[in-house]
Design goal:
This protein is α+β, with helices and mostly antiparallel strands. The protein is 46% helix and 14% strand. A five-stranded mixed sheet has the order 6-7-8-10-9. Strands 2-3-5-4 form a four-stranded mixed sheet. A two-stranded parallel sheet has the order 1-15.
Length: 676
């Protein structure tokens, strides 16, 4: 059994501390946060169904087993290797909401053997529970432990995906996509099934708490049925808690937002969710910030269907002030981006940009920052919001043993890594995801951009654009997420060279024309991340397991292509490091990234799929030399931390925050308590 697929011997667990921020809320705000949190967690169980067939029964197994134990401290685990390995697997499973890594999309299996796993379950003190968990285990054990090539990673054809029935192929997805675009049906909250018993037909399964009549269509001589009620068991509880939250809203925008959430999760109409986002972007700096829905499409192999996530958090008004300054200066900074003004939005819609203390982030993973909504029409014409998740950033901690950098860089790297990352996240979200224009054709066949506009890459006319019904995700499919993350990451390092932008983040000693320590470490962070990205590359399938890391590897290649020894990869027998020549960031690195960034933006604006894929593939495809380095990178890989989050409970009108320690046992206790 490959070590790379085994659960870590010690799964790192970080505590997401929200107590101080939560206690500062009023009783009304606490009740609002509580019910939103409950709505989010119940909805998050959908992630299990979006990951693998065995994830939901495995969750049920763990919940039944752990809930029946009186002592969840597991004080004897250090003396019992099998029990410890069993618990490490449970913690990794809970932390990723499934048995595939949320960051990497690769499967992990228990380090304890199948027989010893079962023996641990056999010790359950309650006979009825023991019978139930053993029945679940015996049914799903082979799937839990399977490392067949087909299930090693998430994918379509070359992996496993429960967004689709097992017999769905890419040609099926492409066919149904054409139908959905014609009928203006969003894929965000759907799954696709292909039925072959009798007449072959496609089923678009729509997530909704309520059941309503299916809709039958015939498209190019094929039958397509749209059904409702997918994930209804979980969404019914989400809706119930949202209705409770409705009684504690602070303003009309929140009332409209929550009501539209209820409508969306009840009936499955994506337009209701879009309306919820319209109300959300108008709710400026609320004490309790939230966003719930089928949001990010990273884990769909085709990059269109959203994973459920629910965010509930408290705004840190003091830290948010600097983000307000960043927003205020955004129009100035946007003019410094390396594409013509015609490729930028006609008007920058200044968003709310806040620093949040996360109470709940209920999904398979927890990001450091967010820029949403992802609906192109709303982002382009109405606006968006940016959030930086402050307690997530602080919980990351400092890397005590810095790999892949030279000894002379380690002290400065450790000292400034967190601060540089904060700058990168801020620029990435606001000036990366928040910029750029898409060229559309409207329903009348009219181009919504000047006909005389020239393509800055060719000097010729614009020859491609988005047709009615097409979006960034639907047009670029599986490439959309990684290209967009690459664009935003490139903006981050490109603009972090600007002294007045660093001043916004408190680095007042930054001087124009000089490379500040924060800038240097940010570029080194990116180059190092590009090297570390090899952890999530599968050479046998020529496939990346994570959009952000694919993006960072591409940027590393841009830096290397710039030449002049600006960036170097240094290999020894059992180690590899990356160096960045600080003196050449402005003269060599920035121009190279600027040229790369302009190309990405032009292809994105014009919807030029073929040109984008050909261009981006050149940078994101590892050479034989990089593939050879992968074993060294893997040998130094450290398991990624998962987060233990607090729980809230209500007694009358009193809301209590229940905290758990940042440990394997604390993480298990949190899930037992949360879903008791």
């Amino acid at each position: 059994m490959a070590e790379v697929n085994l659960t870590p011997k010690e799964q790192p667990v970080a505590k997401l501390d929200s107590k101080k921020a939560f206690e500062m809320l009023t009783t009304q705000e606490k009740l609002y946060a509580h019910y939103l949190s409950q709505a989010s967690w119940h909805g998050s169980l959908i992630c299990l169904h979006q990951t693998s067939p065995e994830s939901w029964p495995l969750f049920q197994l763990f919940q039944k087993h752990f809930s029946s134990l009186e002592d969840l401290s597991f004080s004897d685990r250090e003396k019992d290797e099998d029990l410890n390995n069993f618990l490490q697997f449970a913690a990794a499973f809970y932390g990723n909401l499934g048995n595939y890594l949320s960051f990497g999309d690769s499967k992990f299996v228990p380090r304890v053997s199948k027989e010893k796993f079962r023996a641990i379950l056999e010790k359950n003190p309650k006979e009825n529970v023991k019978r139930e968990v053993l029945e679940l285990f015996d049914k799903w054990a082979d799937s839990i432990y399977s490392l067949d090539k087909k299930v090693l990673s998430l994918g379509l054809g070359d992996g496993i995906s429960t967004y689709y029935s097992p017999n769905v192929e890419k040609s099926d997805v492409d066919f149904v996509r054409g139908f959905m675009q014609e009928k203006k049906i969003s894929p965000y909250n759907t799954r696709l099934w292909k039925h072959t018993t009798g007449e072959t037909f496609y089923e678009i399964k729509t997530a909704s708490a309520g059941a309503k009549p299916s809709e039958e269509y015939h498209y190019q001589s094929k039958r397509i049925v749209v059904t409702y009620g997918d994930h209804s068991e979980h969404l019914a509880k989400t809706v119930s808690n949202l209705k409770q939250a409705l009684g504690y809203v602070a303003n009309e925008n929140q009332k409209q937002m929550i009501q539209k959430y209820i409508d969306h999760f009840t009936g499955g109409d994506i337009n209701d969710h879009k309306d919820s986002q319209r109300a959300w972007i108008k709710d400026i700096q609320p004490s309790v910030e939230t966003n719930i829905g089928f949001i990010e499409s990273y884990r769909d192999p085709e990059g269109e269907r959203g994973e459920f996530e629910g965010l509930v958090s408290m705004v840190n008004k003091e830290v948010s002030k600097k983000f307000g300054v960043l927003v205020a200066g955004a129009e100035k900074f946007i003019t410094r981006l390396p594409w013509p003004k015609e490729f930028e939005k006609d008007k920058f819609l200044k968003p709310d940009f806040t620093s949040l203390e996360v109470l709940t982030f209920a999904s398979s993973g927890v990001p450091a920052g967010i820029n949403i909504p992802n609906y192109d029409d709303i982002r382009q014409a109405e606006g968006f919001k940016n959030v930086s998740l402050g307690n997530v950033l602080s919980a990351r901690g400092k890397d005590q043993t810095v790999e892949f950098v030279e000894p002379e860089d380690k002290d400065l790297f450790q000292k400034l890594e967190a601060e540089a990352f904060e700058v990168q996240v801020g620029i990435h979200e606001l000036l990366g995801h928040g910029t750029g224009k898409l060229f559309h054709e409207n329903e009348k066949g009219e181009k919504e951009f000047p006909s005389e506009l020239k393509n800055p890459l060719t000097g010729g006319p614009i020859t491609s654009w988005y047709k009615p019904g097409q979006t960034w995700d639907s047009k670029f499919q599986s490439w959309a997420s990684t290209v967009e993350e690459c664009r935003a990451e490139s903006v981050g390092i490109y603009l972090c060279t600007e002294a007045d932008l660093l001043h916004v983040f408190g680095h007042e000693d930054a001087k124009e024309g000089e490379i500040h320590d924060i800038t240097y470490i940010n570029w080194l962070l990116m180059a190092r991340a590009g090297l570390r990205a090899l952890e999530v590359y599968n050479p046998s399938a020529s496939k990346w397991g994570q959009a952000h890391m694919q993006a960072r590897f591409s940027i590393l290649n841009v830096m290397l292509e710039a030449g002049q020894d600006f960036v170097r990869i240094n290999k020894s027998k059992d180690n590899v490091t990356v160096t960045v020549d600080r003196s050449k960031i402005l003269t060599v690195g920035k121009p190279a990234v600027g040229k790369f960034l302009q190309t990405l933006q032009v292809y994105k604006s014009t919807g030029d799929f073929d040109a984008m894929v050909a261009f981006y593939s050149k940078y994101c495809t590892p050479s034989a030399e990089f593939v050879a380095l992968r074993d060294i990178v893997l040998s130094r890989k450290k398991p990624r931390s998962v987060f233990v989050q607090a729980h809230t409970k209500v007694d009358g009108t009193e809301v209590t925050l229940v905290d758990f320690e940042g440990s394997v046992s604390g993480l298990i206790q949190s899930f037992v308590t949360r879903f008791a």
